[in-house]
């Protein structure tokens, strides 16, 4: 059983043994077995959300759970972001296409954002891969659709407009798959969606007010991203001690220095990371020494996992801040695994996340690499280097529509980097009915999210889960 669970990212499943045309026909055959109507039919779920949440959190740092719950309790959308395990479990009980791709695994609207290419170009695309796996293409799309509904409700958009938008997102995904199928392998591999691409689309928008609003937001993001680097982080998060050495500021329990034993374990993990990093990065890091280490929690879904920041100082006095983030086993499998088995499977998790990110992103952080220490798996990346996002709760409906359609386009493009992806094209051929069908599925599942959220809030207030701080 455990071997099957660890096999979820077996790359042999996506090896090329057929031509593109043959894969398209295989996708059409899959459509004949599992129709669009079946894929869009919602099956009610029967489970206790608290049981799943508690089991997931049993692998996390217990003193951080009250803060984690506070973030999840804000509204149904933040709850949805923090409980990927619930939807992962529920999707197992829905009809599935059996058409595989490398998935993001958590493709909600807030997991798209801006990041820097090695050439310092500002790109837009998927930016969270903790739940990445090989699975059915529609799992990512369904996750995106439900998030668009939840965030749109918070924005006060009408249900009629949101229903139309959700249908349009599936249509955009279908058309983007069709477009990718027409491209060469090299065109797909080198495709990048840069900041300027979004600016150009904004300029083409017919609504002058919405275009102006989104253009202002993008300009702020560009300006802010250029200031988002390690030196700015040092100014904001560090202070000099009595000996003049820089130290991270404590802000317990979210940010706290680690003990001597853990410090040495992390140093060991950092040395292993350097061995796993690209050769040019290994050479570059030879200029730096470790100045300080702190445990620093981030996000919503990741809040409570083991996450550390390393402050490195170069021989010229400059600084580099790296994030070491725990790579948990997939929540897709986590619920079926004892704690010890989950930890034992860890070494594969960091490599899974790194491989998926390098595949699904058009250009990844050159510092990205996996490591492990103290029996757990981690991955390392630059911390906040030119990483920015659009606050979807501050968009009017026209701007929100553009943003969500862009996410659908980039999701399809990312999916098409998997060698057997032409099967998706075959499955989606002449399947306009999916636009309306998946919208209805998403609306039905949104009601389940809201029901789970109410249960979660009730459990917090009644002491069944750690109280919010």
Structure description:
It comes from Limosilactobacillus secaliphilus. Pfam families: DUF2252. InterPro entries: DUF2252. This is DUF2252 domain-containing protein. The chain has 469 residues and is α+β, with helices and mostly antiparallel strands. It has 2 domains: 2-224 and 392-461, no CATH class; 227-382, no CATH class. Helices cover 52% and strands 14% of the residues. It contains 21 helices and 12 strands. The protein has helices at residues 2-6, 20-33, 36-39, 49-57, 65-72, 76-82, 84-91, 137-154, 159-182, 185-190, 195-204, 208-227, 230-237, 260-276, 279-285, 331-334, 339-344, 346-360, 397-415, 422-428, 433-461, and strands at 100-103, 112-116, 122-126, 133-136, 238-240, 246-248, 255-257, 288-296, 307-314, 319-326, 369-373, 376-382. The chain has a 6-stranded antiparallel β-sheet. It has a two-stranded antiparallel sheet with strand order 1-4. A hairpin with a 5-residue loop joins strand 5 and strand 6. The chain is globular. The model is unreliable at 1-6 (pLDDT under 50).
**Shape assignment:** globular
- The helix fraction, in percent, is 40-55%
Query: How are the strands of the biggest sheet laid out side by side?
Result: 7-8-9-10-12-11
How far apart the termini lie comes to 39 Å
Give the count of structural domains.
2
Number of strands: 12
Structural class given helices, strands, pairing? alpha+beta
Rg of Cα set: 22 Å
What does the main sheet amount to?
Answer: 6 strands, antiparallel
Poorly predicted runs are 1-6
Mean pLDDT: 88
Strand content: 5-15%
Put simply, the count of helices is 21
């Amino acid at each position: 059983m455990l071997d099957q669970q660890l096999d979820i990212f077996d790359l042999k499943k996506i090896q090329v043994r057929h031509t593109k045309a043959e894969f398209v026909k295989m996708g059409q055959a899959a459509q004949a077995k599992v129709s669009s109507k079946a894929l869009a039919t919602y099956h009610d779920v029967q489970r206790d959300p608290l049981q799943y949440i508690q089991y997931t959190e049993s692998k996390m740092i217990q003193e951080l759970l009250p803060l984690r719950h506070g973030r999840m309790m804000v509204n149904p959308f933040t709850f949805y972001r923090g409980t990927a395990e619930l939807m992962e479990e529920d999707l197992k009980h829905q009809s599935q296409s059996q058409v595989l791709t490398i998935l993001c695994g958590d493709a909600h609207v807030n997991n798209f954002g801006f990041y820097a290419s090695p050439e310092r170009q500002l790109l837009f695309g998927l930016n969270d891969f903790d739940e990445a796996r090989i699975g059915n293409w529609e799992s990512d799309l369904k996750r995106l659709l439900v998030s668009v509904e939840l965030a749109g409700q918070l924005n006060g958009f009408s249900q009629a407009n949101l229903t139309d938008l959700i249908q349009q997102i599936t249509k955009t995904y279908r058309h983007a798959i069709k477009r990718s199928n027409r491209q060469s392998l090299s065109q797909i591999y080198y495709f990048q969606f840069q900041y300027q691409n979004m600016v150009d689309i904004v300029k083409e928008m017919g609504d002058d007010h919405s275009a102006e609003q989104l253009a202002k937001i993008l300009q702020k993001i560009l300006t802010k991203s250029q200031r988002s680097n390690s030196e700015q982080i040092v100014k904001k998060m560090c202070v000099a001690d009595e000996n003049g050495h820089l130290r991270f500021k404590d802000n317990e329990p979210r940010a706290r220095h680690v003990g001597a034993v853990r410090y040495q374990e992390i140093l060991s993990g950092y040395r292993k990371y350097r061995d796993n990093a690209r050769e040019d990065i290994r050479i570059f890091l030879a200029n730096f020494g470790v100045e300080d280490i702190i445990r620093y929690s981030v996000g919503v879904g990741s809040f409570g996992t083991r996450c550390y920041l390393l402050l490195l100082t170069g021989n010229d006095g400059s600084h580099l801040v790296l994030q070491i983030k725990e790579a948990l086993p997939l929540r897709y499998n986590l619920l079926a695994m004892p704690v010890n088995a989950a930890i034992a499977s860890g070494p594969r998790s960091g490599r899974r996340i790194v491989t998926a990110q390098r595949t699904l992103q058009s250009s990844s952080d050159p510092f990205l690499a996996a490591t492990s220490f103290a029996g757990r798996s981690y991955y390392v990346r630059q911390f906040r280097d030119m990483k920015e996002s659009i606050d979807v709760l501050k968009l009017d409906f026209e701007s929100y529509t553009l943003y969500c359609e862009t996410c659908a386009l980039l999701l399809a493009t990312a999916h098409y980097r998997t060698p057997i992806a032409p099967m998706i094209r075959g499955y989606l051929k002449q399947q306009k009915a999916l636009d309306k069908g998946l919208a209805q599925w998403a609306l039905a599942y949104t009601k389940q999210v809201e029901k789970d959220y109410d249960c979660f809030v009730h459990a917090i207030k009644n002491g069944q889960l750690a109280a919010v701080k």
